[in-house]
Design goal:
alpha/beta; 257 residues; single chain; Rossmann fold; two-stranded parallel ribbon
Length: 257
């Protein structure tokens, strides 16, 4: 059997479609699960996707309890019972540099786990962390403001005939990756234990994404001021290392078609 955390979330739901014999764990039952589950000898893999994923979350207790403490306890059990682990890290740990430079508390919580894994990597039977870049795709309907620009812009166009784009978005470049590619690579790669970038390695601007959506569905682009609360907390550029050889990633334009 496979333990899947974050099973009700956007990325978790996409994993669930591809898996059989799954034990679903989410924030609502996470600690109850750790305290009551006893069949660890039957678990073949842990896919840890669950997290408080809001990059604007400021409640450190909430972030620590789930993103850090729960994860550490889950990983201790994986080591004890020799269960392979695949877990979601985040490209937010890079901030606006090509090296580690987290800009918010969410990114710091992810980095804490990455550092712990690197310090204890030889204790695991096998562990892979994936620093997801900007994931988009089917299943983002309930993410609200945390949805990717691909899905957010599409929803706005369909509902109002226009999408709202931050001023200066031609200068904001992100590495957008379709959730279908995320699931395929995480489940089927043969790499050794380690922490890997998971993005296409080809960043495009938010303006490009907006134009792709308008080209597909029609409508207009409305430019709005950049919010004050995101200043100095917003990644202006992300680009993954090309870890995955000749893998053919889905582009935003292809996805929208």
């Amino acid at each position: 059997m496979i333990i899947l955390t974050g099973a009700k979330g956007f990325i978790g739901c996409n994993f669930k479609k591809r898996l059989q014999d799954v034990i679903e764990v989410d924030i609502s039952n996470s600690y109850d699960f750790l305290n009551s589950f006893s069949e660890w000898n039957k678990v073949s893999l842990i896919i840890h996707q669950g997290a408080i994923s809001s990059t604007t979350e400021k409640n450190l207790r909430v972030l620590y309890d789930y993103n850090v403490l729960f994860t550490l306890r889950l990983f201790e059990l994986a080591i004890q019972h020799k269960i392979p682990v695949k877990y979601a890290s985040s490209a937010s740990v890079y901030g606006n540099k090509n090296s580690i430079n987290p800009l918010n508390q969410y990114a710091i919580s992810k980095l804490q786990i990455d550092y712990h894994v690197m310090d204890h990597i030889n204790d695991f039977k096998h562990i892979q962390g994936f620093r997801y870049f900007n994931v988009y795709g089917e299943g983002e309907e309930d993410k609200g403001d945390q949805a990717s620009p691909v899905s957010k812009f599409t929803k706005q166009i369909k509902e109002t005939g226009k999408l709202k784009l931050f001023e200066g978005s031609e200068s904001f470049h992100r590495d957008f990756i379709c959730v279908d590619d995320v699931v395929e690579i995480v489940l089927n790669n043969k790499k050794p234990s380690g922490i890997y970038d998971l993005g296409c390695g080809v960043p495009v601007s938010f303006k490009h994404v907006a134009q792709c959506v308008v080209n597909r569905y029609g409508g207009n682009i409305e430019h709005i001021p950049f919010p004050d609360h995101l200043k100095d907390k917003y990644q202006l550029y992300t680009c993954a290392n090309k870890e995955w050889g000749d893998y053919k990633f889905i582009t935003v334009k292809e996805y929208l078609k």
